[in-house]
Fold each of these.
Amino acid sequence: MLLNDTRYRSITFQAIALILLVAAIWYLMSNLFANLEEQGLNISYSFLGATAGYDINQTLIPYSSQSTNLRAAFVGVLNTLLVAVLACFMATIFGVIAGVLRLSNNWLVRKLMAVYVEIFRNIPVLIWILIIYFIMTAAMPAPNAFRGDEPAASMILGSFAFTNRGVYIPSPVLEPGWMIVLATFVASIIGIVAYRRYSTKLLYDTGRLLPRFWPSVAIFFIPTLLVFFLMGRPISLDYPALAGFNFRGGLQIGAPLIALWFALSIYTGAFIAENVRAGIQAVSRGQGEAAAALGLRPGRIMNLVVLPQALRVIIPPLISQYLNITKNSSLAILVGYADITATLGGITLNQTGRAIECVLLLMLFYLTISLIISLILNVYNSAVRLRER
Amino acid sequence: MTEAVEMKVSDEIAISIQNMNKWYGTFHVLRDIDLTVYRGERIVICGPSGSGKSTLIRCINALEEHQKGRIEVDGTMLSSDIKNIDKIRREVGMVFQHFNLFPHLTILENCTLAPIWVRKIPKKTAEETAMHFLKKVKIPEQADKYPGQLSGGQQQRVAIARSLCMRPRIMLFDEPTSALDPEMIKEVLDTMIELAEEGMTMLCVTHEMGFARQVANRVIFMDEGQIVEQNEPEEFFKNPKSPRTKLFLSQILGH
Amino acid sequence: MSDTHAESVAFVRETAIPPALPPATVSGPVKWMRDNLFPTWANGLLTVAALYIIYLILSSSLPWLLGGIWNAESLAQCREILQGNSAACFAVLSERWNQLLFGFKYPPELYWRPTLAFVLLFIAAAPVLFFDLPRKLLIFTGIYPFLAYWLIWGGTILTPLIALLGVVVGYLVFNRFVKGSFAAGMFGGVAAALVVWILGGMVFSGADLLSLRSVSSRDLGGFMLNMMLGITCVSLSVPIGIALALGRQSNLPIVKYICVVFIEFIRGVPLITLLFVASVMLSYFFPPERTVDLFLRVVIMITMFSSAYIAEVIRGGLAALPKGQYEAADSLGLDYPQAMRLIILPQALKISIPGIVNIAVGLFKDTTLVSVITLFDIVGMIRGPILASTDWNGVYWELFMFASVLFFIVCYSISQYSQWLERRLATDHR
């Protein structure tokens, strides 16, 4: 009997599983083809080359309604990546600040952060997106409120305008020579790292500890500013200004992008805050006491003992939060931000009626992103594990 | 130490291992093991860590698979046939270093689970048997507690009772006292000695040399996956033949 | 120490020292404030900043909240009453209360049915959530899904009754044969249940008993829809998640890879794409002559979604069990289904409960996504019928705040429960 022998047992079971799987797929596929035939449809991706015929208000690459559906999808991909990267960046900042403050010895701050975390974690992100979108569109003044002698609204610091059509911010204008300034800036960052390494080495070799904070600040600012003025200020800002009924100049960030960006950041930030707190707490108790018993000062304890260990605990969930942000950015469709879900899975799908093709391509895109992110996670985990030996 | 237990060894073969080999990947853990255990024999297996002694007894109830050679337990050939494996496991009880009691079940449930589900004994009878053996290991009053509420020594005695409830004809002990605090070792060893006196066939991996002297009728020394030396305990301790045995004994008895 | 002080070493206390209060600088509110609010200058600044933020929030929201209008017919009327003052117009909540909770198509005279189902839910959920309650209550938990189905959708009680009967008979047959072998129990149970369902369907087709007015799935809506989707999908996905987790842990490569591919695929795509599948794609995979309504298709997809996540949680629980448990089960002669059912899963599931609860909270929040595919859950109701009506066009704050409060209450209490459970499991004498 095949089932009673360990050698064949597993093969028998697997054969059964495989047969069941093939049968299920065959059943679903035959239904699919029967349905398609009945409705006179087929599976074809030629619609991607056809003219899209719709406009997209926020694009990173040139696009017009005469462009193809494929290009519209590509615009969507870039928009998804844009909002995902922006939100990851900002969520990390929110999360780290809130997480560290939750461990503050200040009672009020601790409680305030707990309230932030609990409120944002326990209300759907979709509602947050809608609320912030509503603030951006319905509660913000129209551009013409900035006009007149006594305007109802005014720009913040003379350079930021919050209107119901989006936020206007100054945009950088680059003149010849800006590359040199940028290069100097990058070089001084490298310089800071090099200086810190050198000071550590000096400490190890001679036992002399150089000051670290103020020299770093100096290296950060002085060379770049020097070169900036020497090159005759090659980088300047173009400020938005009222022209007629709308703002001209500067950079316009549409309300949908802001709503999505901010909502995803503040929602995910609450989760990251919990990860950060858990990571630091997991390490700090015994390790912090041990370090303190050795006579290290609190700042050093954090930098030398707690953080290096806590990061190992914090970074893996942080990376999966980034994946969550990317997936949640698909809610863009609610506020009319043209990400991949809204272009390919929304307008293109509805206009061409190619539901199966569009949804499959959409899934393929997100799968690729999540595979890349989990690849990064695996690389990180194995790197950490190697160092543990 | 008290007098050595009287021997009640019969000619009937309980376990016969012939030319058995096992590899972990390319690592040769057990090499050409030949061992015959007669019914009623009490065998102590010792040796340095990594010598393959635990692996050897875990092969006997097929917790580990051997790649070459034959193992026969109670006349049943250990093969890839699941029926044979099940039969052997029913006849062979095992006690682990870390007790491995089921923490979500009470002591009584730990003892009755296998008799009910494997031997298909009615629950009531199984409970009576369980109480009998719990009395024997001297903790009947703990029957309704959970393993986490017991001390290490008590847990290990429950583990022995749990195995006995299956009415095994052979008992395997895998370092039963290594995870115990010193003051608890004795209560577990006493239980094992009592079991030996009743004529149970026992294979015991342990470093308790006092126990070996008192109970065993054969001591096996293993090193690097091979049986290096085996002898009656008296001779084994007084007169070790192999230099490796001598070194090992001097290390564990030397202080 | 030298011997010179030998005399002073010997000491016997003859009077007891009574306990005294600490000096004011060591305890009391002043000390507390100094320790917790102003330990250093920088920290004091932080306190002031926090106080300012709290002041900002309260000063802008409190008058708005407290001055809210609860009785008005429309936003215009609200504004009339307020006369230019800024305050909330909660009248929309009182006027559209039922729509927010039940949707706009559920027959108003039948509201008591879902309400009753909701109340009974607590009794059904209690024995699952609190281990100390009598196990007999689980019987009601078993009956509850059928009862709730009957209450919410209506129709004859025979349908859920036969379904329940099939499950009960199947379970009894399973119990009878499972000691022999798991496969026998399983097949016997499923076969018995099928027989009961088919026979029951034939015998009672067209029969009518205790018939409630039936309500179609299309008419469900509001917060009720969120609750139903959340509870149904989570409870369905736990058994599927267990199967997937066991499959992923198994040493059968093909089974393992089927599970891995399924889990990773589902976890790699956003829920919204799966809802697109439910709304535009899934019907292609059913036989042409059969139509499956949107609610059921959404339930299928959300269940697939959450079972993948729950599988990962349970896999974590399985991995957390010491290897010795598997070995002990083997050495006693238990076979794979017995070892899993009696030894491994009870422990692994217990460890996994907090994780499963967290997934459930996340899933419950995600049920709001169905508003994207034109189901009228609470967000769908707000964005659709209510904000689109001429009466209430423009009352965003009050409506979204109401939805937020509902979600917050449910999610916060569940996550508090989960933390309580985690603490309890940590100290449990396991």
Note: The first helix of chain B runs from residue 53 to 60.
Amino acid sequence: MSGKQRIDEQRAFVLHLYPYSETSLVVDVFSRDHGRLALLARGARRPRSALRGLLMAFQPLELGWFGAGEVKTLAKAEWIGGMPLLGGRCLLLGYYLNELLVKMLPREDPHGVLFDAYSAALHALALGGADAPELRRFEKTLLKELGYGLTLDREAVTGDQIIAQEQYAFQVERGPVRKVGAGDTANISVLHGKTLLDMIADDYTDPQTRMESKMLMRQLIAHHLGGKPLQSRRVFMELQEL
Amino acid sequence: MPASTSLEELIEALRGLPGVGPKAAQRMAYHLLQRNRRGADRLARALDSALHNLHHCNRCNNFTEQEICERCLSTRRDPAQLCIVEMPIDLNSMEQTQAYNGLYYVLMGRLSPLDGIGPTELAFGRLIARATDGVVKEVILATNFTNEGEATAHYLSELLHARDIKVSRIARGLPVGGELEFSDAATVAQALRERRDFD
């Protein structure tokens, strides 16, 4: 990135807030054209700050900032709206998306396609759509955009087309491998060809597809997180158990 | 300038207060030592006594010196209503309204998944035990209208509903005396979405 520059009217979402001194915040944001950034919001915690209540996760914002360092200074924030607030269970799903971005997306790496996918997922969740398709679609885009690749349409060894009735073992760095027998230690997930085909088509109506795709994504993401646990998932699980 | 260790220690300790930086901490330390030694003594004693005598009330989780705080023991309050707030300071705000005469439960926090604060950290179990004592008829959720406060309210409502307790949430919308012209768009948008029948 070039030196000291001023960016204006940038579409962005707040991912997380960290208190900074008694009156300020460091805001982890995901912007449309500049990727993930840390912005210092001066005085944002003062009782009468215009930023209070505005710098909230899951709300489309338009931000302006300046500065050359790792942490830029927030200059302007405006609420765009057009999307209901997330409520209830969807909030926890939103936190899950945010945690994925905070933990996996490097700073100052523009990801327009991912931004649009994130925005679309939040909109769909806010409007009360089915959550499984939204989460899987977002996870797919995330892995693809971060360059981890995700082969779903071909057998990794032979390049053969995926057959719906067959069983496949999904190897993290390679993709689906036709399951011939036991002994494959690198297998992380065994699933049906139909699940892979459904995932390509973003069709999550089949309960088996929902279950298998969820497990597959969970394992792939855990692998790419390198063992870092997801707090939002732990909290979600604990809440389900109560 | 070599400073004595007690002085350094005092300055460092004062820096632990919110909003106090190194400069302010120095000023406070010199003020206490030079100009207000009696005040310093009082502060030391007050801190010491607060630290040793205050703990969480068995019923409302707020700070108290007794097992059960005065408010929870009061016979003039309605024990059928239990209002849940995030922090003691929120309880004070509720009390200032003079619009509520029930009892409270102070969570001492809010769900914040990205910071690793979940139901275990907030001891939801204790709250459920308190709310299901058989006397409480209605739980009023007065957590903040932030995402974290909303998530907390949602899960508490699920947990309490499952235990057949009536749950309500404080209302959100324009402030008293609020004018549309001067209100922020997010507030007006939400007020519109949460509009209610006029009867």
Note: Chain A has a mean pLDDT of 87.
